[in-house]
Write a structure and sequence with these properties.
Elements: E1 20-21, E2 30-38, E3 44-49, E4 54-57, E5 59-63, E6 67-75, E7 81-89, E8 92-97, E9 100-101, E10 111-113, E11 128-131, E12 151-152, E13 155-156, E14 158-159, E15 173-174, H1 179-184, H2 186-192, E16 196-199, E17 203-204, E18 215-219, E19 235-236, H3 242-252, H4 254-273, E20 277-282, E21 302-303, H5 359-373, E22 381-384, H6 394-411, E23 416-419, E24 436-437, H7 440-452, H8 469-480, H9 485-489, E25 492-494, H10 503-506, H11 514-517, H12 528-538, E26 544-548, H13 574-589, H14 592-595, E27 597-604, E28 607-614, E29 617-624, E30 630-635, E31 647-654, E32 657-659, E33 663-665, E34 671-676, E35 681-687
Parallel strand pairs: 11-16, 11-26, 14-15, 16-20, 20-22, 22-23, 23-24, 25-26
Antiparallel strand pairs: 1-2, 2-6, 3-4, 3-7, 5-6, 7-8, 7-10, 8-9, 12-13, 17-18, 19-21, 27-28, 28-29, 29-35, 30-34, 31-32, 31-33, 31-35
Amino acid sequence: MGMSQINWDSLYSAGTVDYRNPSEPDPGDTVTLRFRTKKQDVDSVELYLEKDRSTVEMVRVSSDAWFDYYQTKIVAGVDKICYAFLIHKGEETLRFNRLGVSDVAGEAFDFTILPGFHVPSWLKGAVMYQIFVDRFYDGDPTNNVVNDEYIYLGHAAESEPWDAPIAPLDVYRFYGGDLAGVMKKLDYIANLGVEVIYFNPLFVSPSNHKYDIQDYEHIDPHYGRIVRDGGSRVEPWEDDNARATKYSIRTTSRENLTASDQLFVELVGACHKRGIRVIIDGVFNHCGSFNKWMNKSSFYNYKDQSNAYAAGAYQLKSSPYHDYFAFSDDSDAAWPNNNTYEKWWGNDTLPKLNYEGSTALEDAILKIGRKWVSSPFNVDGWRLDVAADLGHSAEYNHSFWQRFRTEVKSANPDAVILAEHYGDPASWLQGNEWDTIMNYDAFMEPVTWFLTGMEKHSDADDPGLFGDGGAFFGSMKYHMARMPESSVLSSMNELSNHDHSRFLTRTNRTVGRIGTMGSKAADEGVSIPLFRLGAMMLMTWPGAPTIYYGDEIGMTGWTEPDSRRPFPWGHENLELQEYHRYLISIHKHFLPMREGALIQLACGRDYIVYGRMLGQKVGVIVIHTGDLKLTLDIPMWIVGITDDIEINRVMLTNAHGYNVGKTTRHTTNGLLTCHLDPFAGKIYVADLSGKPPVV
C-alpha cells in the first residue's frame, strides 16, 4: 500500500448486481451504483463519469462489521457509460476502476454500462462440454467413411480403428464418431452436470475437423445418416473418378442430407429434454475447396433426380458464385480451373470468402445464421471461427457482425453469439456484435502459465511464470477489464481444446509436438495434482467453464492433431471423472461460482487466493502450486466474514488425492490460518447472514 492512508484492500466495486443494479440496464432505467470502503476509513467517495469528466458525490447508505457502502443513482441513456470512482481522505485521492486502485485514467479500464446489451442469462456460469465429433463415440458404423472413398490433399480417405494412434498428418483419417454416438452418450454427459454442448463443425466437409465446409445447409451424412450408399453409378459431367462419384452420392444425395438433418433435429430435441443447450460452429471466414460454391473437386458435377448444381467459381467465370471469392487473375483466360482464388493462410483447401465483393454471399451467410437457430433445428447459438478476420477490414467486419447479431437475435432472441478471438476483444463487445468470446487471454493463458509455466500449444515454456501469483492476477485483471462483466461471466473458459495441447500434457512442463516427440511422450511425466488444480480453477473462476471432451477422464495429447485423440471408452480415469462431478456440482449449486463478483485476497510465489461474492454468500478458493508445505493467514474479512461466521471447506485436493468431506472453521480477527500440503487446492464457502452455508 506504500504510504497510502486509505486501506486499499477494502476498496471494491464490480459490474455484478450487488454493486450495479440492474447489472444490464436498458435505456431509461435508473441504475444504482455502489462502492465499498473500510468502515470509517475515508472522507468521501465520488462517482466519476468519463463522458463529461463530471463527478457525483456518493452517499454512505449502510455499514457492517468491516465496511461502509456508498451509493448513487444514474439514469441510463442510449450511449455507453464509462465510470470510475474517486476515493478521498485528507489530501489523498485514489482512482478505482476495473484494474482496482489505478493511476490509469480513461475509458480503457473504466467500468462500463452498455444500455440494452443483454447476454442470454442461461450462458452465465453455464457448464459446457466441447465435442470434436469424429473422436467422441461411433454410434452408427454404417455411416463411416470407407477406405479410398475419395482423395483429399493427395491422400485417400482412411477409416481407422478406434484405438489407432493419431498421425502427424491426420486430416484425412476418420475414426467414425458421429451424432448417433453423442445421442448414446447423452446420459453420460448429463450425469457429469453439463448444461451446454459445443460442437466443432457439423456441416458437410471432406476433412475430419470440418473447418473446410462443403455445404453450410446440411449436416454431414458421415456424422448423420446414410440411407443411400452410392452403389449405383450416376453421370459425372467431367470427372469419371469412381471414388469421387461414390463420395458425392454419399455426401450430396438429397436422401442422405435430409436424413442427417433430421437426426440433428432429434439430437437437439433430446438435449433440450435433458436441459442441455446446443452451440454449433460457424466457419464463415473461409469455406472448403470442395464447397459447392467453388467446386474445385468436381463433386457437384453430376445430376440425378434429387440434385442439380450450378458450376462452381473455380470452373467457370460465369458461375453464379464467382463474386463469392476474390481471384488475383480475373481474366477470361484464367478459366476453367482458376486456382488464383484468395486462400486462408495459403491453403488451397480453404478459399477465403469475399464478403466485400458480394452482397449475395453476405445474404447467404446471414440466411445460414438464421436457419440453424430457428425451427426445426432450434440451436441455441453460434461459436464463430476466427471471427475478427472475416472480411478484409475491421470496418467491414464490425458492420457485418452487427447485422449478423440483428438477424440471429430476431430469429432466436435467446441465441448466443460467441466468438473465437485472440487479443483485445473490446471493440467487438460494445453491445451490438458478439455476446462473448472463447477466453484465451483472460483464462486459458494465465492459468496455463501459472499452473505449468507452459505456452498453450506446449511450444514454449517460461519456468519463471510457474507459480507466480502476482503475474497471474496482473494478467487476469488487465484482460478481464477489456470485456463487459456480463461477457466475462459467460465467456468460454477452457483448459484444453481442439487447437491446443491437452492441459494434462502441459503439466509435464515439456516443450514438444507429435512430430518431434512422438505421441507417447505426451502421456509421460504428467501431474494429476496440478491438473486437479486447473479443474478447480476452471469451476470457480468467472465464466462458463468448458470441458474439452475427455479432459474429465485424463486424456492427454500434444497440440492438434494429437489433442484430438478418440475418447478411450472403458479406460477412463474414474477418480478424475468423479472429481469433476463434485466440482461441477459445487459450481452449479453455489450461486457465487456462477454469477458472483471476483475479488483478489492474496498472492505470492506458489499461491493465489480469490473470492467470489453474491448477496450474502461468499466462496474462497486457495491454490498452491508449490511442492513444499505452506501456511497462509487468509484475510477472510475482505469478503465480509466475521469471526462468528461458520466457514465450510467443501473441497480439498493435494498431491495425495482429493476429499469432499466437509470441515468447519472460524476466523480469528478476520484471518483464517490455512495449512497447505504440496499442490493443494481448497474451496471454502460461507453465508454472511449467519446461516450454515449450503452447496
